[in-house]
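re: ur question from yesterday

yeah so i grabbed the chain u mentioned. its 184 aa long if i counted rite. heres the sequnce exactly as i have it in my notes:
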Amino acid sequence: MVIFVVLGISVLLVILLVTVFNRFAKNRNIVKDAWGNIDVALKRRYDLIPNLVETVKGYATHEKETLEKVILARNAAMQVPPGEINAQIKAENQLQQTLRSIFALSESYPDLKANVNFLNLQDKLNEIEENLERSRRYYNGTVRENNTYGESLPGALFAGMLRYEHFDFFEADAASRENVKVSF
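ran it thru and got these structure tokens back, copy pasting raw so excuse formatting
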């Protein structure tokens, strides 16, 4: 009789372990898929930034330092190895701050504000940022689900043993939440 009880408990424990493991795997894959949507938009933004910098460079020749910071931030964000989502989030927040400085520059250059190429690039960047915002919301929802499961029962009991992966939320940093007055 004792053997059947021990065997029954063992079977239930194995079923629980398999269920928790599968949920961790599913959540991790959903988060990584959601990050893939963000990654596509980031690549589009990376491709657009050199054109934006070149357009601004023609009007703001003495603002070389600002433009170099944008390129350095872009390059740093591009150098983050694939799969290092938390590191990518930090690099993207830095890039977002430097991009804001380009649009703030345009306030000092009325000809730049009227330039068709600059306006087209700004429109494309705004479209990319809107796509990023939608993707960020979805990603953060999947991260919330993943992290909640890994930090609550029964997931928390087996998190270390079953390769649970905690992900950071992709939130705008404090500086990028501030409204910048840019009028075109």
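noticed a couple things. Residues 174-184 have pLDDT under 50 and may be disordered. also The radius of gyration is 23 Å.
anyway ttyl
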